[in-house]
Amino acid sequence: LLFGAYATLEELAARWPWPGEPPAGVEGARLEEEVEDEPALSGRCLVLGERALVEDVESWIVWAARQRLNCVFVHVSTAPEPVGSAPEATWGERRERAVALARERGMTIEHGGHLLPELLTRGDVRALAEGHALSKTARGVLENHVRAHPEADVLHLWGADLPPGTPGGRAVSEAALRTTNALAEVVEDAHPAAQVAFLAYHDTEEVPRGVRPRHNVCLLFAPRERCYDHALTDPACPRNARYRELFRGHVEHFGAAGARPPRVFEYWFDAILFAAGVPDFTGTMAEDLAFY
Prior knowledge:
Blueprint: H1 2-11, E1 14-15, E2 24-25, E3 45-48, H2 51-55, H3 57-66, E4 71-77, E5 86-87, H4 88-104, E6 108-113, H5 116-119, H6 122-129, H7 136-147, E7 154-157, H8 170-190, E8 195-200, E9 217-221, H9 238-256, E10 260-264, H10 282-291
Parallel strand pairs: 3-4, 4-5, 4-6, 6-7, 7-8, 8-9, 9-10
Antiparallel strand pairs: 1-2
Helix pairs in contact: 3-4, 7-8
């Protein structure tokens, strides 16, 4: 109903190009007698991964709903001044009102980032990857983190953010999925309704075929090394052909295990990847979205 109301307002020439600004009118408004529309993708997420965005989170949530987005991902770090993510403390200061606004708009809330090295010792992380049980102390830390975020429908507890080109392979991906499964077991005890994301990214791009994901794990495919000069479906681009097949392989593997629906973390507007300014990816985005 909310999205239908905003669609009607857009027909009447109202647009909200930027959070916190009044609607901008356009020429040629015409109210159609009947309109039928539905999204091709059931989940459409806005990532808030900088301090400034989270400081203005209420405006962004309202704006996101006006654009027919139905999910917000608060990408955080426990560091006081992180690069490429927002401080967890800033989210804590604004969480109560932000969650209320998001829930009023039927939004899913995702929370986290590269938090595993910030929460656990290197030895605990290595033990998880090797399939060993968590220490009592490490389990308590994770349980406290999960219980501190009852708002999170999806928890992101990723490993270290390694540099692009870091060697990986199937064994690395399988170790990462073993880790995610162990985290998901802890999460299920502390927050049964939440999902835990497995990040297919950099060194974990390969499909972890030797490990079966738990039922409360979802794929998060993050193809940062793909080619952005071409759409994923461009037959002339061998790099993107590889990423197409990786994505299909991941979706097939997770689907066969009965895991939760897959997610994609795209980099069309990445301020690090495109530090000099984001190119016009309008055509690329349209083709990529059609593929997804």
